[in-house]
Amino acid sequence: MHRTSGEQDRVAERTGAFAPPPRLLLGPGPSMVHPRVLQAMASPLLGHLDPEFLRLMDEIQQRLRHVFKTTNPFTIALSGTGSAGMEAALVNLIEPGDAVIVGINGVFGSRMAAIVERCGGTLIRVEAPWGRIIEPEAIADALRSAGPVKAVAIVHAETSTGVEQPLAPIGSLCRDHDALFIVDAVTSLGGLPLEVDGWHIDACYSGTQKCLSCPPGLAPLTLNDRALAAIRSRTTPCQSWYLDLALIADYWAEGKRAYHHTAPISMLYALREALCLVEEEGLETRFARHRRHSAALLAGLAALGFTPFAQEGHRLPSLNAVALPPALEDAPLRTELLRQFGIDIGGGLGPLQGKIWRIGLMGESATRANVLTFLGALETLLFRRRWTGQPGQAAEAASRVYREQGLDEHSLV
Amino acid sequence: MHRTSGEQDRVAERTGAFAPPPRLLLGPGPSMVHPRVLQAMASPLLGHLDPEFLRLMDEIQQRLRHVFKTTNPFTIALSGTGSAGMEAALVNLIEPGDAVIVGINGVFGSRMAAIVERCGGTLIRVEAPWGRIIEPEAIADALRSAGPVKAVAIVHAETSTGVEQPLAPIGSLCRDHDALFIVDAVTSLGGLPLEVDGWHIDACYSGTQKCLSCPPGLAPLTLNDRALAAIRSRTTPCQSWYLDLALIADYWAEGKRAYHHTAPISMLYALREALCLVEEEGLETRFARHRRHSAALLAGLAALGFTPFAQEGHRLPSLNAVALPPALEDAPLRTELLRQFGIDIGGGLGPLQGKIWRIGLMGESATRANVLTFLGALETLLFRRRWTGQPGQAAEAASRVYREQGLDEHSLV
């Protein structure tokens, strides 16, 4: 092969294969990815209309229905990250002038509100302080006092605050008022109970890089017949062509498979494998695992003076938000955790910057070994700051929780 | 681990790891992917704000500038497939009421037109029969007769017809009329000459699964200062939040890195490796390789009675559209190619369904071994139909081209 001299210079800049440094991912996502999922992505590609690929799409749909707890035929993986799922749900269901109630108690509720406004929807904000749930009674009030409401949109697992939002009562309220119920399950799907059908959720989306422990790049999404009817009866075209769910439905529908865009094939390989792992473990077992490690982590952190940020009784097991003790500085500690231990955790967003940490225990990241490793690293750093008198006290507090729960002392998971 | 009995039943349905059947991908994309690129995706993940990941983003930007032939600082990989690139370019640059000229001579020009209408733009269609280029003179006429035009949008490589559109004269026209020049380079980037800066292209997007030979899932995109100024001076918010390039610019900008959404990390690993391979080969060498194998393929197909569909002198080397001889049936032949040989080629879209084939020789797919393998398989099928008297004639015609070009008889690539 011939190269021009300019190009030879460029080639010389190569530094060899990219080798990511070792990382323990305990932030708000991506979570750790199982080697089987990583390996799946290294499989050769299929054409996106190949019968074998279409069969894989069918399989993914079936497995997604299982984790969403739904029988909705329209249950797919959208070709974008979780934020694309949010945008798709809203821009397809909301038309200009539609009244939409949005629960806002963190970054992701605020983002929903911003998208509703970009759709020309009439936004009805129901707010709560960051760290607290949206009281179902507040949604009930808004539904009673507003005129006809097209939809209620709310975040199940607020990744910015660590709050788990109760959904079932809001689902019933939506049915009573004939409003669509749109739920953001980005940080809950596959990590804590979510009942799409049981809770009357009409549209629900998620991301792959949280409790499903798959790399980011797809947005699982499910719509029931009420949501689909709302889309089919739009009087204006959806403002997005790429995320137009009426067109995408024709691509995923068995028997139709109308070309819309080329699906991210390798990501779908990964998602299939991640969903297999979820089923092999079993949903209930997986939820219990998330709860167990969250409890141990919080016990360990409490021993060091960190306090849970989210409202008691509504704390996410998948994303543990804790307030830093006032004397501790956020940024230097997180930098040392990353540089010295390769441990990646999340800081606070917006008004919570510098005040809280967000420690993700999602999917593959939620293990005893990871909780104890993190607590040990943190204790080491705090000991150097003369913060903690006795290294091991956090790990001991966590271990006590594990013993109480009957977890084998030698269990890594 | 405990499982509920219902879940045990589900687990029993598992069929083991997904193993895609062997495929030679010679369709309109995805193209074959180099093992180094596949392996890159199997690397463990980094957090999307990890300093090492941000460094990787910088590297990808630099390598993308090289293939786009641009110095634009805003040169990124968007978190969606090529169609997301199209949508992003249009919804960010077009505001309601803006006059936009769109060249329409195939599926992808039609798609651009549809998106312009969803943005509320005033669409000015400049059409040509499918298979022919949009004459620059027709764009000149439209620019002269319309009032002020915000943008001219056109497809460089029409994947539905195999036409290569001349761009340089249109770029000059756009500057003369102070219109933005938006180019779809999905099936050209990395496979044939494209000069973003040299041809006065203001916004250009592509996909990864074509001539870059990377799996689908990202849309390389570049904007110059004129395009960015148009975005920064919008009077209405961009209708897409997910694809809002003003927000995305703040995520990719060195020093800012404002969180917008979680990037598809594994796909970026893949793109980095694919771009390394492009640089190692050298762009000119790569373009020549695409031309060489296209010429050989067309010679072989001519020997069997297939004729090029696209206008002479404007045929894409990366996507070879050929008209089927009238007596041959499209669907059964393509099915046999896939089932008996594992060879995936594309059929015609829309009005061309059943009439043409679209044979992609993009990136890793563009090799002598693949051309000869495809021709051999096709000859076998045609021989069974008593179509061809003498198996080997197509391969011989292709080999003649290789000999004329001085390619080693034993070269696989």
Written account of the structure:
2 copies of one chain form a homodimer. Chain A folds into 2 domains: 35-279, 3-Layer(aba) Sandwich (Aspartate Aminotransferase, domain 2); 282-404, Alpha-Beta Complex (Aspartate Aminotransferase, domain 1). Chain A has 14 helices and 14 strands. The model of chain A is unreliable at 1-12 (pLDDT under 50). By secondary structure, the first copy, chain A, is α/β, with parallel strands linked by helices.
Mean pLDDT of chain A: 94
What is the name of the CATH architecture of the largest domain in chain A?
3-Layer(aba) Sandwich
Give the percentage of residues in beta strands of chain A: 5-15%
The quaternary state of the protein chains shown equals homodimer
Rg from alpha-carbon coordinates of chain A? 23 Å
Shape of chain A: globular
In CATH terms, the superfamily of the largest domain in chain A is Type I PLP-dependent aspartate aminotransferase-like (Major domain)
Euclidean distance between termini CA atoms of chain A: 51 Å
Poorly predicted runs of chain A are 1-12
Number of strands of chain A: 14
- How many separate domains make up the residues of chain A? 2
Q: Helical proportion of chain A?
A: 40-55%
Look up the CATH topology of the largest domain in chain A: Aspartate Aminotransferase, domain 2
Largest sheet of chain A: 7 strands, mixed
CATH level 1 name of the largest domain in chain A: Alpha Beta
Strand order of the largest sheet of chain A: 2-10-9-8-5-3-4
Structural class by secondary-structure content of chain A: alpha/beta
